[in-house]
Write a structure and sequence with these properties.
Strand content: 15-25%
Number of strands: 5
Structural class: alpha+beta
Distance between the termini: 40 Å
Strand order of the largest sheet: 3-4-5
Order of helices and strands: HEEHEEEHHHH
Radius of gyration: 18 Å
């Protein structure tokens, strides 16, 4: 793995922060075409490549070193969430695009959206609402899809983390 990790470290020293390409949900982020535009020449320069495969409801991101054949991979579940105004296939396609962007950014160690935590833009509020995690949150998502209650009711009742809030945006 020494060839892959050296090439990845060299790539990371050259790749700039990639953001401000697209605005959405109150923050800026880079869409896939913008990310590809920036990273592809640098990946080629350092002998790196990647592929992203769909395996059931998972995205498998594989980063490889072209010359040595060394590779690392990451597997991420893509939740099945119904987006308003979209059929199941369109919603799943949106999820694939969303997770492709973040999985690729993560495996390459690049920044593709604005880091609001470090900028001090988020205000932490004390809350007495309980947290909802793991299997219980997944069941709540299923109940929202089934029309038993709404995403707004879930947010009003529970203290949701940022990932959970973003998941609700995909419903």
């Amino acid at each position: 793995m020494k060839h892959l990790f050296k090439a990845l470290a060299d790539f990371q020293q050259e790749v700039p922060v990639i953001h401000k390409g697209t605005q959405g949900y109150g923050y800026s982020y880079a869409d896939l075409p913008k990310i590809f535009e920036v990273i592809n020449p640098l990946l080629q320069k350092h002998g790196l490549g990647f592929t992203q495969l769909i395996n059931g409801q998972q995205i498998v991101t594989i980063l490889f070193h072209c010359e040595s054949g060394e590779s690392i991979e990451s597997k991420t579940d893509i939740p099945m969430i119904q987006l308003k105004g979209m059929n199941d296939y369109q919603s799943f396609g949106s999820g694939i695009t969303y997770y492709r962007r973040y999985c690729l950014s993560t495996i390459l160690g690049i920044v593709t959206d604005k880091d609001t935590d470090a900028a001090g833009e988020q205000v932490k509020h004390e809350t007495k609402k309980p947290k909802i995690e793991g299997e219980r949150f997944l069941k709540a998502i299923e109940a929202i899809r089934a029309g038993e209650f709404t995403a707004e009711e879930l947010q009003a009742k529970f203290d949701l983390n940022e990932v959970q809030k973003k998941s609700l945006l995909l419903i």
